[in-house]
Amino acid sequence: MCLSADIGELPVQGKTAALVGMPKLVIFDCDGVLVQSEEITLSVLISMLNARAPGSATLDVTRFIEHFRGRRIAECLREAECILDIHLDNEFEQHFRQRALDALTLDLKATDGIVEVLDSLQVPYCVASSAPRSKIEHCLRIAGLFSYFEGRIFSCYELGRWKPDPLVFLTACDTYDIAVSDALVIEDSVTGIQAAVAANIRVLGFGPPHRRAQLAAAGALPIADMREVLAIFN
């Protein structure tokens, strides 16, 4: 989906309704869309990586939260090894995941407005995430959203292919017997948006105003408030 250069000239809700139309399936990403987990987990990861870094060669937290957002953790670790010139043992990812789960248990919250959106949707919806199923379910339970998505979870780990590969979105459409032209993806990361674009599925990019240009450049229509999704169905 290509966005026009004048996207900022119209109110987001009106532009959203006009561009997207009425979807028959809504596919949510989990981290950063349903729950506000990316900053928590990636802050833990970057802190652990910097603790292994020699001297002053460390990763800037703000920059690398954005850089790693939506990507497979194993891929992030390989890149960090090259940047920091370090070797991570086989147990590093396991330790990270446990510390991240502990941090999520303390601080994770559902995205503002998501319950209102889910309660209002009259079409099928699901979650399609690059995270392992165990993490998806853990996050949804902590945030009080698991009852909405039980039996509606698609994990890249179970498919063996990760975003920006489109398979997880295509699998969701196939499962619900919905054409990609009738689906809508809501993502917060460039990687996830690229996966939706590769699947030929229309995509909303959810994030704060300062990320609007980044999300639009990746191929999404940016929204800053989750409730804007409801404009599509008016």
Describe the protein in words.
- By secondary structure, the protein is of the alpha/beta class.
- The chain folds into 2 domains: 7-36 and 109-233, Rossmann fold, CATH 3.40.50.1000; 38-107, DNA polymerase, domain 1, CATH 1.10.150.
- Helices cover 47% and strands 11% of the residues.
- It has a 6-stranded parallel β-sheet with strand order 3-2-1-4-5-6, with helices on both faces.
- α2 (38-52) packs across α3 and α2 runs antiparallel to α5 (92-107).
- The radius of gyration is 18 Å and the shape is globular.
- Residues 1-14 have low confidence and may be disordered.
- It comes from Pseudomonas extremorientalis.
- This is Haloacid dehalogenase superfamily, subfamily IA, variant 3 with third motif having DD or ED.
- Pfam families: Hydrolase.
- Belongs to the HAD-like hydrolase superfamily. CbbY/CbbZ/Gph/YieH family.
Quick take:
With about 230 residues, the protein is of the alpha/beta class. The protein is about 45% helix and about 10% strand.
Question: How would the blueprint of this fold be written?
Answer:
Layout: H1 12-20, E1 25-28, H2 38-52, H3 61-68, H4 73-84, H5 92-107, H6 114-120, E2 125-129, H7 133-142, H8 146-149, E3 153-155, H9 156-159, H10 167-176, E4 183-187, H11 190-198, E5 202-206, H12 212-218, E6 221-223
Parallel strand pairs: 1-2, 1-4, 2-3, 4-5, 5-6
Helix pairs in contact: 2-3, 2-5
Protein name: Haloacid dehalogenase superfamily, subfamily IA, variant 3 with third motif having DD or ED
Family: Belongs to the HAD-like hydrolase superfamily. CbbY/CbbZ/Gph/YieH family.
Cofactor: Mg(2+)
